[in-house]
Amino acid sequence: SSVEEAEEFARQSLEDGSIPKQIHWKVFLELADLAKRSNRFDTARKLYQQVCKLQPYASQGWLEYSKLEEECGHLKTCARILRRGLEYCKFSENLLTRAIKHEEKMGNLGGARQLLARLKHVGIDKVWRTVLEGALLEARAGNSVMARRVLKYLMHHVPWYGPLYMEAYRLERDLGRPVEALEIVERGLQAIPRYGPLWFGAFRLCEALDIAEKAYDMPRTSEMFDRATKSISRELKWKVHLHAAQILERTAIELVNTRRETSLDKELILCRERFGMTVLTCPPNLSWKVWLAGGRMELSAGNTEQARKLFLRAHNVVPEKGKAAVIMECARLEEFVGETKVARAVLRKARSEVGSDWKVWLESVLLEIRSGKQRRAIDVAKRALEMHSGTGRLWASLVQLHHLEGDTAQCSSLRLALRVVPKSGEVWCEGARIHLNPFSSMFDLEKARSHLYFATKFTPQYGDSFLETLKFELLEKWIAPVATVLWEALHVHMLDELPSKQTNGDEYDKFIVYCVHKALQSISKTDVTTDAKASSTTPMLDRELARTIRDQLNLQENHRVFDATELELRCANADPNYGFLWFHCRESPIDTARAVLARAKVKFRSELGKHALIYIAAIIRRAAVAAVLRNERNNECDYNEAKFTDEVDQADTFAEALDAKLLISPTLDQILNTKTQDLECNLNLMENTMASDFVTGLEELNKFTPLNTMSVHERRKTLFGSDSLLS
Fold first, then answer.
1. pLDDT by residue (tens digit) across 30-57?
2. pLDDT of residue 257
3. Does position 413 have pLDDT exceeding 80, yes or no?
4. In this structure, what DSSP letter does residue 74 have?
5. Does position 87 have pLDDT exceeding 60, yes or no?
6. pLDDT over 70 (residue 126)
7. pLDDT band at 461 (very low <50, low <70, confident <90, very high)
8. Are 184 and 169 spatial neighbours (Cβ–Cβ below 8 Å)?
9. How does pLDDT run across 322-364, given as a tens digit for each residue?
10. What is the pLDDT of residue 258?
11. Rounded distance, CA 329 to CA 334, Å?
12. Backbone angles phi and psi of 109, in degrees to 5
């Protein structure tokens, strides 16, 4: 191949002396890169070592060598290489920045700060980029005071660098300090008035401040628009008009929601004018986006025919690259007005014409889900994956849809997806949802924790993973301790009911049902006591303990367990930008990550309080199945003298056996619908509740609601609210 010929030519040139010795290290660097791309890592490693030996004062060699070790998973070796390189290139900007980020990645903030400390006697003009990285490090670590001080110092010494003001603005914005953020933006605009991102940041802040004050004439925002059109570079003026149009549209909708007598169609007059100005000033190759945005606006006002005309204009001028996006918008429009068959036909044509775009297939899957045709959605997802097997969002959709076919099928689908796309955060998130679903046989908080860790690590921009993590933390800090106390208080009495040796599986199943029923009965009684008429084998809670447990489940009494500061920091650092659950909890594009989390926290608290007994039942079920498995294993050891020689193997074997046992044991649905003679069945836990209500984090998002029963605003949010094409 040409690559092999290039390698051979390079080696011959090194041997025959046709290349000066001073640049041999550059040839070795190229050879190492070729070896790395060919997955010959040992060869690449030796070549990088040769590069660093021949020219240790070139930071590029140390950088590439460290990247190789990091990609191979050798993080400590990577750190040693970077530190070794810094001995020769003490103030190399690239090497220092990479070393600081690597130490942060390893959780060694002290080491990162030590690297920064060596810069204190160096002129700021030489190392300001590295100092900026240090400020961002402190911001990501939650040390906002130090980050603010360093950024202020840099803004004084490097006033011409626009991204510096943007980082300072984001710090204040994410901390919920819009006034301070606006002051920073104003300072930046005085220094570099033509810098576009600062103007767009200013629009966002002014909109938030005006809406907070219910100033629907938008005084701050309008003034900022006028200033921007006079100062911003000419090629960005169309974006100013587009932002103005979208802000005016959001404001009009907010005003109509507040004052019902107001006509939305009339309030959108200024918005239409801004869209017209946008079309006149935008580049021709981008005008299709403006027509789509205008069409969405008309849909909000109920002007369907006008929206169709605007979408048609977009279709007529869109470049080939954006054709799929326009066709999907047209399909959504037809679905919006109730023409599902037409929308399905439009997407079918899109799959034949632009099927190379995976988003067309995903939209087809979503259309079937919204239509209540989950089986058809599964078929479409499977066909999509034949063409786009490496797309995590398609795999995640399929895994979620497989809940219809039972726990075994869903777990098999998840395992297959993780083999094909092991770094897809969306798929890991679906795995966590399986383990967080109380009606899933595989309900397991520990596995949910590990799945969510990988989900947020691999795809931090996927907001659903952070929201599911929030729900997990609420479960772990609030519901799980209650279930643990309950099991510890009752399990001694319950284990007395455990079937004797060599019994059949039905007896074990009855024991599992018994444990869950008795636990629920114990905490649901209004007056818990030891009744003289009760059976001696009936476990009852002490009155004081029962009252404590009920108080623990009281939302008002337990606001203190809902501290999510660390998660908020992680989420703000990631700044997620998509996810159905994320968009459901986000009310406006100007919402910060912390605002979305705060809104989601209220929703989760309400739903967990409503379904607390269901989650407790799921935890007790798992504990009862584990008790049955231990009993079976103890019996096996008694009769067969089976012994485990290695504790780790024993733990792994038990975990795998427990998973298998959970799949064949009575499901929570079956347990709660089982009538037993000794249970006062007055809990009604399954009233208006189905297992499918827990497929994702929020019940209100899981319940099927036909589009034709939604309001115009709800339909628009469902169909267009999760698309970041224009927002």
1. 999 989 988 999 999 999 999 999 999 9
2. 85
3. yes
4. -
5. yes
6. yes
7. very high
8. yes
9. 999 999 999 999 999 999 999 999 999 999 999 899 999 999 9
10. 85
11. 9
12. -65, -30
Average of per-residue pLDDT across 308-320: 95
| Cα 716 to the center of its chain, rounded Å | 23
Q: What average pLDDT does the structure give for the chain? A: 88
Task: List Cα–Cα distances, 125 to 115, 121, 345, in angstroms.
Answer: 18, 12, 61
State the pTM of this model.
0.90
Tokens 């910060």: give the residue: 592
Write the secondary structure of 193-235 as one string of H (helix), E (strand) and C (coil). CCCHHHHHHHHHHHHHHHHHCCCCCCHHHHHHHHHHHHHCCHH
Interior CA angle at 8 toward 7 and 9, to 5°? 90
State the Cα–Cα distance between residues 561 and 545, nearest whole angstrom. 19
Terminal-residue alpha carbon distance, the chain? 46
Q: Give the span between the Cα atoms of 483 and 485, in whole angstroms.
A: 6
Burial class (CB in 10 A: 0-12, 13-18, 19+), 414: buried
Q: Rounded mean pLDDT of 446-455?
A: 97
Using the predicted structure, report yes or no on whether residue 528 has a pLDDT greater than 50: no
Question: Cα separation of 246 and 457, whole Å?
Answer: 33
Whether the CB-CB separation of 698 and 581 falls below 8 Å is answered with yes
Q: What is the largest CA-CA distance in the chain?
A: 102
The top-scoring range by mean pLDDT among 500-504, 555-559, 641-645, 693-697 is 693-697
Residue of 170, 200, 195 lying closest to 184 (CA atoms): 170
Using the CB atoms, write b or e for 331-347: b if 16+ within 10 Å: bbbbbbbeebeebbebb
Helix residue ranges per DSSP H, 586-667: 593-610, 612-640, 647-664
Asked if residues 131 and 154 have their Cβ atoms less than 8 Å apart, the reply is yes
Q: 1 Cβ partners below 8 Å, 6+ apart?
A: none
Band (534; pLDDT cuts 50, 70, 90): very low
Q: What is the Cα–Cα distance from 365 to 598, expressed in whole angstroms?
A: 30
Question: How far apart, in whole angstroms, are the C-alpha atoms of residue 680 and residue 531?
Answer: 14
Locus of tokens 């975990």: 655
Distance set, CA 322 to CA 10, 555, 719 (Å): 43, 49, 19
- pLDDT of 385 > 60? The answer is yes
- Asked if 86 contacts 96 with a C-beta cutoff of 8 angstroms, the reply is yes
Amino acid at 134: G
Tell me how far apart the alpha carbons of residues 293 and 248 are, in angstroms, rounded to a whole number: 12
Other beta carbons within 10 Å of 534: 12
Q: How many CB atoms lie within 10 A of CB 210?
A: 19
DSSP one-letter code for 478: I
Six-digit token string for 685: 């836990």
H/E segment holding residue 343: helix 340-354
- 487-515 pLDDT, tens digit per residue, is 988 877 777 777 665 556 678 888 888 88
Gap between the Cα atoms of 590 and 203, Å rounded: 10
Q: Residue 202's closest CA among 236, 148, 243, 230? A: 243
What is the C-alpha separation between 508 and 514, in angstroms, rounded? 10
CA dist 336 and 331 (Å) reads 9
Distances from the Cα of 28 to the Cα of 66, 563, 604, 657, angstroms:
16, 53, 56, 52
Q: What sign does the CA torsion over 260, 262, 265, 271 have?
A: negative
User: What does the alpha-carbon distance between residue 154 and residue 526 come to, in Å, rounded to a whole number?
Assistant: 63
SS3 state at 462: strand
Res 444 pLDDT > 60: yes
Q: Which value, to the nearest 10 degrees, does the dihedral of the CA atoms of residues 588, 594, 600, 601 take?
A: -150
Amino acid symbol at 105: K
